[in-house]
Amino acid sequence: MTKDAVQGAAEEADQAQSKKGLKKQQKEAEKAAKKAEKQAKLAADTQSTDEDDFAKDRYGVPQMVQSQQKLDRVLVRVQKLTPEKADQLIWVRARVHTSRAKGKQCFLVLRQQQFNVQALVAVGERASKQMVKFAANINKESIVDVEAMVRKVEQKIDSCTQQDVELHIERIFVISQAEPRLPLQLEDCVRPDGEGDEDGRATVNQDTRLDNRVIDLRTTTSQAIFRLQSGVCQLFRDTLTNKGFVEIQTPKIISAASEGGANVFTVSYFKTSAYLAQSPQLYKQMCICADFDKVFCVGPVFRAEDSNTHRHLTEFVGLDIELAFNYHYHEVIESITDTMVQIFKGLRDKFQTEIQTVGKQYPSEPFRFLEPTLRLEYTEGVAMLREAGVDMGDEEDLSTPNEKLLGRLVKEKYDTDFYVLDKYPLAVRPFYTMPDPNDKVCASLNAHTHTTHAHDTIVAFTELVIRLMFPPQKYSNSYDMFMRGEEILSGAQRIHDAQLLTERAIHHNIDLEKIKSYIDSFRYGAPPHGGGGIGLERVCMLYLGLHNVRQVSMFPRDPKRLTP
Amino acid sequence: SLLGKDLGALRDIVINANPARPPLTLLVLHAMLCQRYRVLSSVHVHSSVSGVPAQLLSCLGPRHADSYVRQRFQLGFTLIWKDVSKLQMKFSIQNMCPIEGEANVARFLFRLVAPYPSDPALATLVDSWVDTAFFQLAEGSAKERSAVLRALNGALGRDPWLAGPELSLADIACYCCVLQTGPAASSPANVQRWLKACENLGHFGPANPLLQ
User: What is the ipTM of this complex?
Assistant: First the structure.
């Protein structure tokens, strides 16, 4: 009985197992059948594609463009797709920004630089089902050639720059196929700060963007930034050329540092070493001595400062100006500030689209300025800071926080984002800076003499004592210019007298041998002159109210980044 | 004093004015300030406006020969043509809120030139004439204006100036507003006599080129 029972149980188990096995087999068979069916269908599909697709010449991936033929085809710019072009059959080359298939239709957003337009492939007499499927499967960022009919739309398309028309695609060819997976999504790159957090969407940090700079540069924001930057350069050139300036090119490999040796890159130069230029300072001055009168220079400058801040780069583009003046270096300040004002006005008038595009992602107040530019003196700046409770010495250099605070105070009082701070303390400027001839202490004493006739001798005596106690040259003919409270230009009247220049160089402990050629340039008649250097990236950053200089440097270089 | 602590730097009075409504009283007061102090005057155009007429750019007179050394001046007078709905003065931003309205700025500037009458009744009278000038003469209807002219005529029948024997801010404000709003010839006799007396003082030169 027990045996039976055991046997029975075993049989049962066997049966159960075989049942299970049967089921499994059945399932597998079903699966295989389905698979076969699918394959057959797919085969049939492809067959039918080959056979029935009436539109097969209207789409596809053509041969790589190796300049086999020169077509007379006119490719219309996306920007030009306006209602005036309605009902015209045109060709466009653009990137596939996004694609969205919906049954018998496929919507594409075609992008060209900062402009985009909606396009549509729909099954009909011009397009087959297969063509729609093909269009839907084109990878994002691929470049396509499209022949399409421009149609007006009834409701504005808010998501595109070309809001009044859409394209009805009749032919679509992939000119360059992008890989299916992008390292980062363009949408994530243009999302305003903070918006991503709320929706739980991805945000892309700066480093990821810079690592994939080529893709990041395709965003509407980047496109606008660098178009505006090009505008700054052009306005700078145009304005100065109109003022009679000559553009010069200077060497970037130099034998001596121009502004103290601490922050220069050393490069090996055959059997000796050389430096990368911190500014074309010495060369533009030599051009003045060579009678070029007014010169400017646009080129790279290098700073080996190991500072990882939002506004420092190790290589940036310097816009440098140097000019001879007649009697007072304010002629130079006026020339430079006028140039800056012309640039601001030019940007305001010609680059409004770009400014607004950037503003969508990085909102900021429009840039405000005065004409003529506001000029304050260093002592006034110090007084404003002291009034605001900052404790600082007369001859102390402005720290970055104080610089920003002063910018805020000036903005509050004068409502300008651009101003000049003049008459810096001599001690904080480079050796070639011209000392200020007006001694502040003695000037104020002189002003009082007429009221105190009785004490004339005492006053004269005090004056003498003060002159002995304090070196007369406390201030200098130097100036900084600020945009939104950050320094963009540093300049000065330069010493054009070889004797005084030598004295100042010795005072700064500079090896005279190394700057011999520089000092020698002033021995044979040198006109009084002054100038300054502007950082292109900083101007763009501050004009647009951006927060990081890397955003306005196409391929930024800083102590931690050498690629791409 | 009214100017606050001396921090050893130029004390700059900043005035934001709309070029559509040039502040004539302030130009007159500016000229008076220049007689009393070493004033560094400058005119700027803010980026919010464009196409400011040349006469407004030179309304503070030619540039001082010493203007390149700001230290040599006691007071700055910086006029900024700007898109503002109300005239605005900013002086010591840490201790003073911005002052709005031409009348109020005029009161401040006048005190730098000459003290207000010490008699409170007289001082109030001056203030009241200043209000009348800016609210009823400058902005009022034709009816209101003629009412003010009648009141002026009455007051000037009793005294040579609006607030007694001495020239005050009341006269300056009313003079500018009367001339700004209509031809002098149509005013009553006492007012006409007073307008002449004002002109003879020579204070109103700077405002004249801007009066029609």
Answer: 0.92
